[in-house]
Write a structure and sequence with these properties.
With 147 residues, the chain is an all-alpha fold. The protein contains seven helices and no strands. Helix 2 (40-51) packs across helix 3 (55-81).
Length: 147
């Protein structure tokens, strides 16, 4: 009887440590809400906090983010409908997607700069670059073992 209880406890602890290790990455995301993607309101709140935006700027930024999300959803739906074309020439499609993404980012940044101004936009770009660097560094294989 003692052996069965002891083995059950060992199995329970092993399972709990395994599950904790798997959930560790999601919980370590800096300033991330519980979901995988931030809503336009959450993104606008974060930007307002980082840059000290006025209530009017925050409202305009939130509306812009909603518009961008709707446009992105339409593009994703279009891409999903065109799955057959994607399978045929993958490299060409990847280049097109990258060019489209860069164009969209430039348009989004220009619209955002009109709302928040040049100085705050530079500060936001710097903040965004720092976050991207942190993400890249945290995903390197040689750093994964040290966690």
């Amino acid at each position: 009887m003692k052996k069965v209880v002891f083995m059950a406890l060992i199995a329970l602890f092993t399972l709990s440590f395994t599950l904790e290790a798997q959930n560790n990455r999601r919980e370590n995301r800096q300033n991330a809400p519980s979901g995988m993607r931030w809503s336009p309101k959450e993104r606008a709140d974060n930007m307002a906090k980082e840059l000290g935006l006025t209530a009017e700027q925050k409202a305009k930024v939130e509306a812009l983010f909603k518009q961008q999300d709707e446009k992105r959803a339409e593009e994703i739906a279009k891409q999903r409908d065109n799955k057959e074309g994607v399978e045929k020439d993958r490299d060409k499609r990847r280049e097109e997607m990258q060019a489209s993404r860069e164009k969209t980012m430039a348009e989004n940044d220009a619209a955002l700069e009109k709302i928040i101004g040049k100085e705050k936009m530079e500060k936001w770009k710097q903040h965004r670059a720092e976050l991207q660097k942190e993400r890249r560094d945290s995903n390197r294989p040689e750093r994964r073992g040290s966690r």
